[in-house]
Design brief:
Chain lengths: ~500, ~240
């Protein structure tokens, strides 16, 4: 298959130095003639109540940014629907008046997905916060968009069940469905793609659909087109997710964590590949490079050896843990790995993992006053040693601060690029590095985004990754479901 | 959880129908501590007790799934349940402690619905037992218990003789999650059922709730353009 080469677009052109300054003056981007808002705002209020609509500048700013480096792009108005019927009614109004619709969960995304590039209406879904329909024996539950992953697990704590997908933030579960999120234990429990059974979605014209049929929750199905996974990862560009039915798992009987240091990146990554090939059902296998470990040591006052390191966690019965650990230790020692530092009880395990969870802040602390941007490539396991080694060489050659932390069990790793927003030269070097990294991953049969999504900044990379024909099909689906391009315009495609 | 608390239309209390009930978080910590002591073989048996209507047996089952050996459900319902407070509960606990010949009573420092923080103290007083309240660390040493207590000024360490009453504070431990196999095993554990009268306890309340109201809604702030305006307004409402 051949395709015309597009001129290389600088992927991060919008990440100029001035854009890191938080937006102070908001230019109101009217998408209606001035008379139009006077009709629309009262219509919104009649749906969500007087308190359910805000034009306040601070409120709009809060809803125009997430946790990425992208600058704030506030909507024209924020609304808080309380039910799927209200979401539908609001969508119908927006559809009639050609107003962009931007769904907002917890605002914890990392790719600028909530920026209202063309203004419009932000649907803040946090007031729809019920846990519905828990079926303990069937291991499923349905939740509204205001329920976060920690909130759900707290609700479930008496049942012996949990929802294991754990991205860094305490994100909205429907938001996690929208971005096809993943976490540190995807290697054992999968990502959102594997764990969403059904979605209730409001389309741009207000229609309410159930992607697997209303109320249905079989563990598997071969009925019709897989609409559920069409919307998982659609990042608000195809519809507003108002309910998600999730697959739950039994809380592990026992857990044990360990830390192991290696003489080289190659040894650590080879160990990862071998552990998985042996079939050990390891729950977490996280890689931190020497720069990252050093940052963690300084930040948390620890004293791990400054060398490539794996943080491991095993789940299961006491007996199966013994077996898993024995097999894993044989592999790591064969690759020159150190003895394991162990943690069995909840408190010690918590301390051990704190080092990994604080990685972001530890990286930022390396260079106070700087900002950080996380890369997110993912490649097949066998290519992992090569890409990490090449990436570290690239970082050193270009004098960049990019400690590496990653879910190597999935072939996914993050370079936390720490940069001075006022150093134009460094900003450009970081942009170019991330482009090279993404292309390196694509060349190794991988993806430019393992878990963060495409959002605003990776649309050109998506085109390279998919090829023009697949993109055309995606565009066709978008046009069918949202002909007026109202759903989160300017993202993904 | 995100349940919105609503006051009943007659202002007699808050709406509890249809609201998900779960174990008081401080009591979860108490159960965890008891189970830990048993795992260390410092105590022989852990009995989980709850007072209330039928639904509380679910909470007792959770305690059994966390590792308690058996449960006791003291049935209180209707008006008696609505009027039930620390005094009635502590009388029940005192009676049970004598009946079961307990050497330790461990409970949460307070319930998060009424925030009374009285039951442990009253129980100790009724039994004339020593008390180690707001415990953030518990160590059994022969017939004595060393308790590190969280107090306003810092930490206080005391040593008390058993039998004793302990109340659990936040930092005592991190409660375990009930796992499915343990929940299944818990179904086979026994929960005895009795009424307060069986223990010789009268449930008459000495407290009458007159009225329950929501906190007043916060009024919108007022923006002023200049410092002089601000000073004038503060003078006008008597703040300065």
């Amino acid at each position: 298959m051949s395709f015309a080469l597009r001129p290389t677009r600088s992927l991060y052109a919008h990440l100029t130095t001035s854009n890191f300054v938080q937006c102070r003056t908001i230019k109101k981007e009217h998408t209606l003639k001035s008379g139009g808002w006077e009709r629309v705002i009262p219509a919104f209020r009649s749906v969500c109540g007087e308190d359910g609509v805000s034009l306040g500048e601070a409120v709009r700013e809060q809803h125009g940014r997430d946790e990425s480096v992208h600058r704030c792009r506030p909507p024209d108005v924020v609304v808080w629907p309380r039910s799927v019927e209200e979401v539908s009614a609001l969508a119908k109004i927006c559809h009639h008046h050609h107003l962009p619709i931007i769904p907002f969960g917890t605002g914890t995304g990392l790719e600028g997905g909530v920026g209202a590039l063309k203004g419009g209406v932000c649907f803040s879904l946090r007031n729809m916060d019920r846990v519905l329909d828990l079926h303990q024996e069937d291991f499923d539950v349905s939740v509204e968009p205001g329920v976060t992953r920690k909130g759900l697990n707290s609700y479930l704590r008496d049942t012996g069940l949990w929802f294991p997908v754990d991205p860094g933030a305490d994100a909205s579960l429907c938001g996690m469905a929208a971005t096809s999120a993943s976490g540190t234990n995807a290697v054992r429990y999968g990502t959102m793609r594997e764990n969403v059974l059904n979605l209730e979605v409001v389309l741009a014209d207000g229609s309410i659909i159930h992607t697997a049929g209303r109320g249905r929750r079989p563990r598997k199905t071969s009925a019709g087109y897989n609409l559920t996974n069409l919307f998982v990862g659609s990042e608000g560009t195809l519809g507003v997710i108002t309910k998600t039915t999730l697959r739950l798992y039994g809380v592990p009987e026992a857990m044990v964590s360990a830390v192991c240091t290696f003489p080289s990146v190659q040894a650590a990554v080879d160990s990862t590949v071998q552990v998985l090939q042996t079939g050990v059902p390891i729950a977490r296998i996280e890689f931190l490079d020497d720069v990252m470990i050093d940052a963690c040591n300084r930040f948390n006052l620890l004293s791990y050896p400054v060398a490539p390191t794996l943080f491991l966690e095993f789940h299961g019965t006491e007996k199966s843990l013994e077996e898993q650990v024995t097999v894993t230790e044989e592999i790591t020692q064969a690759n020159g790995g150190s003895d394991f530092s162990w943690a069995r009880d909840a408190e010690t395990r918590g301390r051990l993992w704190k080092a990994r969870h604080d990685a972001w802040y530890a990286a930022l602390a390396l260079r106070p006053g700087c900002k950080a941007y996380s890369t997110d490539v993912c490649v097949p396991l066998s290519r992992l040693p090569q890409i990490i080694v090449e990436t570290k060489e690239d970082l050193m050659l270009n004098r960049l601060t990019g400690p590496i932390a990653g879910h190597v069990g999935d072939g996914n790793f993050h370079c936390i690029m720490v940069m001075d927003p006022n150093d134009q030269d460094e900003v450009i070097r970081v942009h170019e590095f991330t482009e090279r990294l993404a292309r390196r991953a694509l060349a190794l049969d991988g993806t430019c985004t393992g878990e963060h999504g495409v959002g605003l900044g990776k649309r050109a990379l998506l085109r390279e990754e998919m090829g023009p024909l697949a993109i055309e099909v995606m565009q066709g689906l978008k046009t069918t479901l949202d002909p007026k391009n109202l759903m989160n315009p300017g993202k993904v495609l | 959880e995100n349940t919105k608390i609503r006051v009943k239309p007659d202002h007699s209390g808050v709406v509890t129908d249809g609201v998900k009930h779960s174990m008081n978080p401080f009591c979860e910590i108490a159960v965890e501590e008891a189970v830990k002591l048993k795992e260390k073989k410092l105590i022989k048996e852990v009995v989980a007790v709850s007072c209330g209507p039928t639904q509380v047996t679910e909470t007792i089952r959770t305690a059994l799934a966390m590792g308690c050996d058996r449960g006791i459900h003291v049935e209180v319902s209707g008006k008696d349940y609505e009027a039930m407070g620390p005094l009635q509960i502590s009388k029940i606990f005192a009676a049970l402690a004598k009946k079961e010949e307990a050497s330790l009573i461990i409970l949460g420092k307070q319930a998060i619905d009424d925030d009374c923080n009285q039951t442990g103290q009253m129980t100790a007083a009724l039994l004339d037992w020593p008390q180690g309240t707001f415990a953030s660390e518990v160590t059994i040493d022969g017939e004595k218990v060393k308790v590190v207590r969280e107090i306003d000024g810092g930490l206080e360490t005391i040593k008390i003789s058993m039998p004793a009453v302990l109340t659990a504070d936040l930092r005592l431990n991190t409660p375990r999650y009930a796992t499915l196999p343990n929940i299944m095993k818990a179904k086979k554990k026994k929960i005895a059922n009795m009424k307060p009268a069986d223990l010789g306890v009268d449930m008459v309340s000495r407290v009458e709730v007159l009225r329950v109201d929501e906190p007043p809604t916060r009024l919108a702030g007022v923006k002023v353009e200049t410092v002089d305006d601000l000073v004038a307004k503060l003078r006008a409402n008597g703040t300065i």
